[in-house]
Amino acid sequence: MPRIIDYPIVARQMSDQGLVCLYPNSGAFGYAKETPVHAVGWVAGDDPTIRPAARALTTVVAPPAEATLARLAATAWHDLLPGPVWVLPKAHWAYELDFGSAAWMPGLLQNVGLDDTALSPRHDGTAIEFTVDETPAFVTLVEGLLTHLLGSDFQLCFPARDVVCTVHHHKQLWWMSRDEGIVDRLKKLVGTSTGAQ
What we know:
- This protein has eight helices and ten strands.
- The chain is of the alpha+beta class.
- A hairpin with a 6-residue loop joins β8 and β9 (164-168).
- α3 (65-80) packs across α7 and α5 runs antiparallel to α7.
- The protein is globular, with a radius of gyration of 16 Å.
- 40% of the residues are buried.
């Protein structure tokens, strides 16, 4: 069953990995502005909101995009980023469960074995941790986020791995890393696994 990782542990681990919190108490972690990073985006289709410079970094995945992206996230985790994976709101749980995604998120969390009432009072980016034997629940959660998010984003973090991934509400996964090799392998993963366009 997935576990809740308290925010102070999350913040300490992310700091130890050289990541900074982009908004106070949030689950939005990234690299400092002066840090050179590499990126790749896996997207559901053409999105005019993506800046022209970023479009060159994208690959369109095969439909149904939400299921394809969730499966790809699990494959990237298993093949390239062994260890646990954390799922965090880039805002905080109280917002998501009381307002932002209140109509559907409690049910999604219950579907993956979590008590939403344990998260709803948390005004921070507390993480949900999955291990490899919980992959079906992870895929269910990521697919549900990609399907239902309207204005909020979530993040995938990999303790002790130099990479973060934004689960974007436009049905996209955006990966960033200081390690060009990781990003190159992520690019190849899409090209060989999904019939990407």
